[in-house]
């Protein structure tokens, strides 16, 4: 339960950070406010009731979270009310003026009233159409901006995001969902690009080695048993290296859409089983395990075991067999569990320490390749732990050793 809450909190924090970044980008891209022209001010004064409706609509749009249908109903109801009130005032004023006169010419008055009313009706229809058109344009402007932005988004530019302006309605909700979808698309696209780039970069070396030894065997190795054995051994080694790189690249790509198979299990027992498997296969190093009892966690056991194996493999590779000691421990600390893998190996320099979780980064590129390191193991381990809502930390000193700590919340 604690692990799930921590993961949800981390996801909410990431979403808030993404939303804040989007707001900052949109604020930077938003055009500066324009000063109203003199003729606009004049029209607003002359047609005050109608321009007031427009101002009221803009206030409703930017400050109240209502549906577009509700906003449209409100603005046109108010407009109709103003027109009706103006017409009623005109009729009442006209009748009052006629009644206050000395004589009443009913026929002439009615004819004038009908003509004036017809003119006013036509005028009100024209003004209503103008105001309705302006209101419609105002409502459609965010849609046009969204269309223009969508047209500018392609495979070479996935960083653009939609802007609903000051809308507080369905357009704002739609914009947020489309931007969230674009974030996922951009992340997936970047992940695929990184996969292709990483694969082409890392597979180039073993392919060159295999090709080189194949040419060597073709020219001179057929009749020389020593060259033949050396070529076959190196080709087999590089083929195994390529297989491991491809498997790790596929696993790393899979982690982008990884869905955990949660289960509750005893953490100390799971870690102890991993250590026992190394005690059987690795007899050169001294490997110890110490774990507290009763540490139960809810996580993907297989993925967690994979990350622990990666840390132990790393310790085995870079700890000399002579007097080499690898200590694995599992304990409960406050509200979280900690798994520690410590060794007294060659250590990591301060310059390399911040980059050890980067893809294909090797502190010692020559020795790393000789030891069969692809530079992806720690990257995969870090991704697995973070997907589970945990964290991984490292401390190291050259010539003293390295300590990795996995924290599961």
Q: How does this structure look, described?
A:
By secondary structure, this protein is of the alpha+beta class. The chain is 64% helix and 11% strand. It is built from 11 helices and 7 strands. It has helices at residues 2-29, 38-46, 48-63, 68-99, 106-151, 170-221, 225-255, 267-281, 301-317, 365-370, 377-387; strands at residues 263-266, 286-291, 296-299, 325-333, 336-343, 391-397, 401-408. It has a 5-stranded mixed β-sheet with strand order 2-4-5-7-6, with helices on one face. A two-stranded antiparallel ribbon has the order 1-3. The longest helix is centred in the middle third of the chain and has 52 residues, at 170-221. It starts with a helix and ends with a strand.
Spatial extent as radius of gyration:
37 Å
Q: Looking at the structure, what is the overall shape?
A: elongated
Roughly how many Å apart are the termini? 9 Å
Number of strands: 7
Secondary-structure element pattern, one letter each = HHHHHHHEHEEHEEHHEE
**Number of helices, counting only DSSP H or I runs of 4 residues or more:** 11
Classification by helices and strands: alpha+beta
Main sheet specs: 5 strands, mixed
Helix content: 55-70%
Please give the order of strands in the largest beta sheet. Answer: 2-4-5-7-6
Identify low-pLDDT runs.
365-371
């Amino acid at each position: 339960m604690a692990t799930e809450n921590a993961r949800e909190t981390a996801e909410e924090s990431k979403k808030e950070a993404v939303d804040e970044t989007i707001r900052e980008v949109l604020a930077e891209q938003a055009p500066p406010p324009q000063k109203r022209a003199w003729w606009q001010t004049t029209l607003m004064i002359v047609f005050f009731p109608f321009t007031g409706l427009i101002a009221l609509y803009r206030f409703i749009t930017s400050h109240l979270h209502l549906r577009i249908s509700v906003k449209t109903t409100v603005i046109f109801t108010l407009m109709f009310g103003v027109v009706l009130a103006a017409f009623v005032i005109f009729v009442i004023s006209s009748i009052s003026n006629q009644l206050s006169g000395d004589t009443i010419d009913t026929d002439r008055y009615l004819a004038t009233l009908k003509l004036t009313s017809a003119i006013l009706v036509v005028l009100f229809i024209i003004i209503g159409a103008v105001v309705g058109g302006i209101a419609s344009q105002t409502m459609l402007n965010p849609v046009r901006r969204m269309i223009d932005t969508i047209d500018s988004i392609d495979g070479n530019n996935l960083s653009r995001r939609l802007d609903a302006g000051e809308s507080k309605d369905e357009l704002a909700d739609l914009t947020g969902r489309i931007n969230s979808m674009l974030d996922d698309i951009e992340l997936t696209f970047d992940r695929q690009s990184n996969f292709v780039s990483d694969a082409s970069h890392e597979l180039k070396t073993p392919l060159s080695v295999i090709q080189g030894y194949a040419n060597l065997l073709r020219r001179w190795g057929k009749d020389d048993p020593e060259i033949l054995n050396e070529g076959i051994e190196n080709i087999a080694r590089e083929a195994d290296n390529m297989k491991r790189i491809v498997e790790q690249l596929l696993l790393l790509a899979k982690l982008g859409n990884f869905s955990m198979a949660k289960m509750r299990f005893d953490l100390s027992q799971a870690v102890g089983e991993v250590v026992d498997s190394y005690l059987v296969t690795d007899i050169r190093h001294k490997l110890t395990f110490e774990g507290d009892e009763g540490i139960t966690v809810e996580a993907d056991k297989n993925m967690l075991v994979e990350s622990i194996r990666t840390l132990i493999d790393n310790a085995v590779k870079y700890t000399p067999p002579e007097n080499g000691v690898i200590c694995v421990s599992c304990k409960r600390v406050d509200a979280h569990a900690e798994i520690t893998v410590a060794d007294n190996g060659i250590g990591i320099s301060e310059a390399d320490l911040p980059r050890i979780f980067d893809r294909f980064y090797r502190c010692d590129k020559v020795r790393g390749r000789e030891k069969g390191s692809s530079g992806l193991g720690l990257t995969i381990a870090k991704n697995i732990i973070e997907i589970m809502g945990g964290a991984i930390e490292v401390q190291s000193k050259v010539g003293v050793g390295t300590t990795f700590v996995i924290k599961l919340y």
